[in-house]
Amino acid sequence: MTGLLKFEIGKQIKALRTAKKLTQTQLGEMAELPYTYIGGIERGERNLSIDTLEKIILALDVSPIEVFRFIEINGQQPENNDKDEELYNFMALMSSNSYEDIKFFHKLAADILKHTTKK
């Protein structure tokens, strides 16, 4: 099972990048890394040094914990499907907001779902 951590970190970096509507090229430029290297990281093919990871975190303007926050749904790792990809993207998008904003958006989403979900 070796390489699982770099795969999950890469997947999370991709989710954070796409939530911020950045291309691999744009992130690479911001982090001063080749876009091909960013792609290799996102696919779990590249080993990251702490310095490289720091460059990416700073370029994404996220807390370091966000790179290591892997979603678990009902105690299970997510599958590779469109729904889980959207959940990753949504969490990455929300992660850069304040606590108050996150609470607001959560309440808003709950209210919308309450009124649109059929019983």
Task: Put the structure in a nutshell.
The chain has 119 residues and is an all-alpha fold. It has a single domain (4-116), classed as 434 Repressor (Amino-terminal Domain) (Orthogonal Bundle). It has helices at residues 4-19, 24-31, 35-42, 50-60, 64-67, 82-95, 99-116.
What's the helix and strand layout?
Elements: H1 4-19, H2 24-31, H3 35-42, H4 50-60, H5 64-67, H6 82-95, H7 99-116
Helix pairs in contact: 1-6, 2-3, 2-4
Domain HTH cro/C1-type: 13-67
Keywords: DNA-binding
InterPro entries: Cro/C1-type_HTH, Lambda_DNA-bd_dom_sf, TransReg_Diox_bact_type
How would you characterize this protein structure?
It holds the Pfam family HTH_3. Keywords: DNA-binding. Residues 13-67 form the HTH cro/C1-type domain. This is HTH cro/C1-type domain-containing protein. InterPro entries: Cro/C1-type_HTH, Lambda_DNA-bd_dom_sf, TransReg_Diox_bact_type. The chain has a single domain, classed as Orthogonal Bundle (434 Repressor (Amino-terminal Domain)). It has helices at 4-19, 24-31, 35-42, 50-60, 64-67, 82-95, 99-116. The relative contact order is 0.14. It starts with a helix and ends with a helix. It contains seven helices and no strands. The chain is an all-alpha fold. α2 crosses α3 and α2 (24-31) crosses α4. The chain is elongated, with a radius of gyration of 16 Å. It is 66% helix and 0% strand.
Low-confidence stretches: none
Level-2 CATH architecture: Orthogonal Bundle
Portion of residues in beta strands equals under 5%
CATH class category: Mainly Alpha
Rg estimate, integer Å: 16 Å
Helix and strand run = HHHHHHH
Query: What is the CATH topology?
Result: 434 Repressor (Amino-terminal Domain)
DSSP helix fraction: 55-70%
Mean pLDDT across residues: 82
Alpha-beta content class: mainly alpha
Largest sheet: none
Number of separate domains: 1
Tally of helical runs? 7
Within CATH, the superfamily carries the name: lambda repressor-like DNA-binding domains
Number of strands: 0
What is the rounded distance between the termini?
43 Å
Shape, principal axes of CA atoms: elongated
